[in-house]
Amino acid sequence: MTLHAIANEVHAEIHRAWVKFGPQHHLPNGTGGPLFERYATLAKRDTDEAAADGRVTWQHVLQEEVYEAFAETDPGRLRTELLQVAAVAMRWVDAIDTRYHEERVEADRTATQ
Asked: Could you report the average pLDDT of every consecutive run of 10 residues in the chain (113 residues)?
């Protein structure tokens, strides 16, 4: 599946949420503060250590981005962080789809031998 197709799935999910909950523009961001700053620091350290040890996962990468967003109070920087969260999530979905496709191709190849 391509990133464009994944973006279409995300758009469909946004539409479902809009239908179910209506507009949500009134909700506050709820970000910032020392707790989220601490979580962001810990998540970055954990990701860096995992990367250095060759054991980094998508969970590490996404968690770091999410906590960076949660720690942010400036609306412009928060927006940037949230776009990074969305990008990592879409790349993770793409990785899952790619692995699934490769596993299916390998299973089909093995079955025909």
From this structure: 92 97 96 98 98 98 98 98 98 95 70 71
CA distances from 52 to 1, 42, 88, 92 (A): 30, 15, 20, 20
- What distances in angstroms separate CA 102 from CA 42, 82, 93, 98, 106, one per listed residue? 34, 30, 14, 6, 6
Number of Cβ within a 10 Å radius of residue 66: 20
**What pLDDT was estimated at residue 101?**
81
Distances (CA, A) of 61 to 3, 73, 111: 18, 21, 35
3-state secondary structure 96-110: HHHHHHHHHHHHHHH
